Amino acid sequence: MSTPLRVVAFVAALATAFALAWGGGRLVGPVETEPVAAHDDAAAHGGEADSPSSASANGSDAHGSAVAEATGLTARADGFTLALADRTPAAGRTRLDFQVLTSSGRPLLDYTREHEKDLHLIVVRRDLTGFQHVHPRLDRRTGTWSVDVRLTPGVWRVIADFTPEGWDGITLADDVSVAGDFTPAALPSDDRTARVETSAGTYTVTLAGDTAPGASTVLTTRVELDGEPVTDLEPYLGAHGHLVALRAGDLGYLHVHPEEGPAGPGIDFATAFPEPATYRLFLDFQHRGAVHTAAFTVESDGAPSGGGDTDHDTDQGEEDDHGH
């Protein structure tokens, strides 16, 4: 082959190699998926930040309807990191301190308020007992959030649900270990009735709705006090009730959105169960100045009933721990 032909062949081969490498890189995707520092700086210090063009790890925007993806499976997502100050806290009443860090390593300071709070913290033992829905306080000088909780021996999941200013909602989670003798509690069977004993009487809360995996659904909880329907539920965090769903095993967190409605006895929630699994649902509601928590176990399996519409079958159930 003559020299000019060799040069032409070499250039053609080189161009082909570059094209393949570029195409392979596009198929594989970028290695670094964190937001650029300029975006983080804006979010951390209150500047204008461009929202992600697609949904965040939550699977929808902060005001979306059903979310068919469990979140809270990692301490790091979308360039934000949940940094716990102490991974081995003592048993009993103790203080949790943590920061939400941007990809630049600086604490996030500016949030979009959701349900009257900048950040919602769920603390629950990995056997799904000891549930606490609390609201830490932010020290803006240090970027540190702090809150008191009650912990027993075992491994606890700490789940932070928040919306950075200019972003969609994000859920981050990590574990802390509490020393001491620990015997995991057995998860109750599929129960759709919870009873909460209080000084005001016994609240009976039932759960109805389609729990088939993959289908958008509306779950309805109904609250009674000593057998009488409760029609004067009080607003709590801007709604008549809040429902948290956690998947047994990995404690995947489901976003459940309260829908507007009367002050009881029924409260509607839009959600979706992403896959067949066992879920533990915790309902917070406020009545006569006190916040109560009712818990349900739900087995998500089978096919949707009536295309995902809510059904009204209820079974028997029981209450669980609550921390307010």
Distance between the termini: 84 Å
Task: Tell me the radius of gyration.
Answer: 24 Å
Q: What is the number of helices?
A: 2
Q: Architecture of the domain at 64-178 in CATH? A: Sandwich
Report mean pLDDT, rounded to a whole number.
80
Tell me the CATH topology of the domain at 64-178.
Immunoglobulin-like
- Please give the number of β-strands: 19
Describe this protein with a few key phrases.
Immunoglobulin-like, 324 residues, disordered N terminus, mainly beta, single chain, six-stranded antiparallel beta sheet, five-stranded antiparallel beta sheet, globular, 11% helix
How would you characterize the overall build of this protein?
Strands 10, 11, 12, 13, 16 and 17 form a 6-stranded antiparallel β-sheet that branches. 36% of the residues are buried. Among the domains are: 64-178, Macroglobulin (MG2) domain (Immunoglobulin-like, Sandwich); 193-300, Immunoglobulin-like (Sandwich), CATH 2.60.40.10. It is 11% helix and 37% strand. It is mainly beta and 324 residues long. The chain starts with a helix and ends in a 24-residue tail after the last strand. Residues 1-67 and 307-324 have low confidence and may be disordered.
Condensed summary:
This protein has two helices and 19 strands.
